[in-house]
Amino acid sequence: MNDTRHEEFRAYVTDRQRVLMRAALQLTGDRAEAEDLLQAALAKTYLAWDRINDRAAVDGYVRRAMVNTQISWWRRRKLDVYPTDELPDSPVEDHTDRSGMHDALGRALRRLPERQRLAVMLRYYEDMPESEIAEVLGISVGTVKSTVSRAVARLRDDAGLGADFPSVPPQPS
User: Fold this and answer.
1) Residue 50 · residue 22 · CB < 8 Å
2) At 10, which CATH number?
3) Full domain range(s) for residue 129
4) Residues 6 or more apart from 9 whose CB is under 8 A from it?
5) What DSSP character marks residue 96?
6) Digit-coded pLDDT (tens) for 27-55
7) How far apart are CA 13 and CA 59, in angstroms?
8) Cβ-count burial of 90 within 10 angstroms (0-12 exposed, 13-18 middle, 19+ buried)?
9) What CATH number does residue 142 fall under?
């Protein structure tokens, strides 16, 4: 790979590593495994960099490489697990609270006006900078800031979100 493409790949990784790491964490649920998964997917992407003509599709390529790699690792690990008559001594972590919170947050986001919902999703789920969000939504950076601020305030005050989690104390205004 020539130096220009090498630098282009390096710039891509530097720019997108946080978003891609978050996707890897979603797939693995473990920080160390996510780092290994992202590294493996980026290595595959680096080898295929010359064949990826549409640079806008690189995120999709990396995510697909992560999914395929994770499935491959999962299949390999599955062979190491054998059924037994003995139950494990340690309790298994229960993720139902996290799943419930995820569902409640999804419902609260759907109650936001479309532009606020898009701004929050792009800012916090896709980790896009405000200038990029402004470009995508066709609005000014200041409008992005105020839209996200109003959306977060509405989420903070959302009675439905509070009803789903009464044990969570309200945030001070």
Assistant:
1) no
2) 1.10.1740.10
3) 99-164
4) 1, 45, 46, 49
5) H
6) 888 899 999 999 999 999 999 898 888 88
7) 10
8) exposed
9) 1.10.10.10
